[in-house]
Design goal:
The protein contains six helices and nine strands; from the N terminus they run ααββαβαβαββαβββ.
Length: 213
């Protein structure tokens, strides 16, 4: 019997996201539109809308839906912002950002994952620029960014990413800690000052690069 992905997606948004405190209507609507099953391996599609991360190859995962929603909401996006995503993975988070009307540049260190994600995003109609490179160094030629989202756990906040934030309210959301457990941080830059907030515990794959692990 064919899976009813629309029903599964609606149930995911209601049970896993709205009921757990995500209240931004634009974020909820974006997650209700993006077909998450298209971003996981075919043999895992029955689990695509479960409240869990899933392997996508190359030692990487697609984050659980709630964490995607939490990190996206923390950016406070209104649409039209230039956003840098570090860690393209399957492309799911980039698709959510694009659904919010942002100009998305996504960096992935694994060339195979980057190519697959770029093809998938294009096929699904998402205008995302996927770049192969060391995400810990950002994309300086495109800076400043109104928002930066890092989808892997870092030992510290990479100075290059902090420097590429827009000086008037640029927001960086990043997991920071050890290789097993991190704290999700939100940094907001105002000129030479950076406000740092903790958003709770999380677990991500390691952020590998010159300014990561």
């Amino acid at each position: 019997m064919a899976l009813d992905y629309d029903r599964m997606r609606a149930a995911m948004v209601e049970a896993q996201i709205r009921r757990r405190g995500i209240g931004d209507p634009r974020v909820l609507a974006a997650l209700a539109r993006v077909p998450r099953h298209e971003f996981v391996p075919e043999n895992l599609r029955a689990m695509a809308y479960d409240d869990t991360p899933l392997p996508i190859g190359g030692g990487q995962t697609i984050s659980q839906p709630y964490m995607v929603a939490l990190m996206t909401e923390a950016l406070g996006l209104q649409g039209g912002e230039k956003v840098l995503e570090v860690g393209t993975g399957s492309g799911y988070q980039a698709a959510v950002l694009a659904e919010l009307g942002c100009h998305v540049i996504s960096v992935e260190r694994d060339p195979d994952l980057a190519e697959q994600a770029a093809r998938r995003l294009e096929r699904l109609g998402y205008d995302v620029r996927v770049v192969v490179g060391d995400g810990t160094l950002g994309v300086p030629e495109e800076a400043p960014f109104q928002a930066i989202l890092v989808t892997a756990g870092a030992p510290r906040v990479p100075p290059s990413l902090e420097a590429q934030l827009h000086p008037e309210g640029g927001v960086l959301v990043i997991p920071v800690g050890d290789r097993g457990v991190q704290e999700l941080l939100r940094l907001t830059r105002w000129g030479g000052r950076v406000l740092r907030e903790g958003l709770g515990g999380c677990r991500f794959v390691p952020l590998v690069g010159k300014e990561g692990w």
